From TrEMBL:
InterPro entries listed in its UniProt record: Flavin_trans-like (IPR036551), Flavoprotein (IPR003382), UbiX-like (IPR004507)
Family classification: Belongs to the UbiX/PAD1 family.
Native source species: Labrys monachus
Documented EC number(s): 2.5.1.129
Positions of dimethylallyl phosphate binding: 169, 185
Gene that encodes it: ubiX
Sequence segments annotated as region (Disordered): 1-20, 203-223
Name this protein carries in UniProt: Flavin prenyltransferase UbiX
Domain Flavoprotein, residue spans: 20-188
Alphabetically ordered keywords of this record: Flavoprotein, FMN, Lyase, Prenyltransferase, Transferase
């Protein structure tokens, strides 16, 4: 009713934010998570804004034999890590939010402290202050109490802490499918539909209990 009345008064309905997501790749192990996020968002027709830290140059090279320029083919806009005047450094530039995949402890800590020394952490800070979605695929192990407290603080500030933990129930048959599933679940948080997620529909068959030897019993299936 209220909407109808305001339209009759000639008011504009609030515009929907553009389907635009910031992708940050920091220097934790798992650069492939960031690359897959870019590829999947590109395939879904979402405009991406990519920012890569200097340490991530090392992990891209070490883990994937890639350079940041190789990512341009999937990114809408590539921002320089030092360009603190970039569009994504301002809250007036509307986005659906940001995913940092993978997220190092250093970047996590900068975001929580608010001492944002790069465009990646500044963009994350902006996403939080504008109450937009921030997904942090934090990767470190084992974790000391300081790491855990910093993650707690980030969650209290509104971020989603989503370590890249493999979903073995989906029975990945390769590193690629394991990573795609995790990234697909992260993109679920932005309501981006991908075909990478094996969605759980319940145990198709009863898993064998200890000592159960029935040849018909098999492991649970998700297919
Ligand atoms: C090959 C490699 C793997 C690394 N893995 C991790 C990791 O899993 N988690 C982490 O927090 N830091 C990791 N680091 C260390 C970070 O790169 C380092 O703390 C850096 O300062 C992070 O900066 P950034 O957040 O600006 O990318 C790794 C470094 C290298 C070279």
């Amino acid at each position: 009713m209220e909407q109808t009345r305001s339209r009759q008064r000639g008011d504009q309905a609030p515009s929907r934010p553009p389907r635009r997501i910031i992708v940050g790749i920091s220097g934790a192990s798992g650069a492939l998570y960031g690359v897959r996020a870019l590829q999947m968002l590109d395939a879904a027709g979402i405009e991406t804004h990519l920012v890569v830290t200097r340490s991530a140059h090392l992990t891209l090279a070490q883990e994937l034999e890639m350079q940041p320029r190789d990512l341009k083919q999937w990114a809408g806009v590539v921002h320089n890590i030092n360009d603190i005047g970039a569009s994504i450094a301002s809250g007036s530039f509307r986005t659906c939010g940001m995913i940092i995949a993978p997220c190092s402890i250093r970047s996590l800590s900068e975001i929580v402290s608010g001492v944002t020394s790069s465009l990646l952490t500044r963009a994350a800070d902006v996403v939080l202050k504008e109450r937009r979605r921030l997904v942090l695929m934090v990767r470190e192990t084992p974790l000391h109490l300081g790491h855990l407290r910093t993650m707690t603080a980030a969650a209290e500030m509104g971020a989603v802490i989503m370590p890249p933990v493999p979903a073995l129930y989906a029975r990945p048959d390769s590193i690629e499918s394991m990573v795609s599933h995790s990234v697909g679940r992260a993109l679920d948080l932005f309501d981006v539909e991908t075909d990478a997620v094996v969605r759980w529909e319940g145990l198709a068959r009863r898993a064998p209990g200890p000592g159960a030897g029935d040849a018909d019993d098999g492991p649970p299936s998700t297919s």
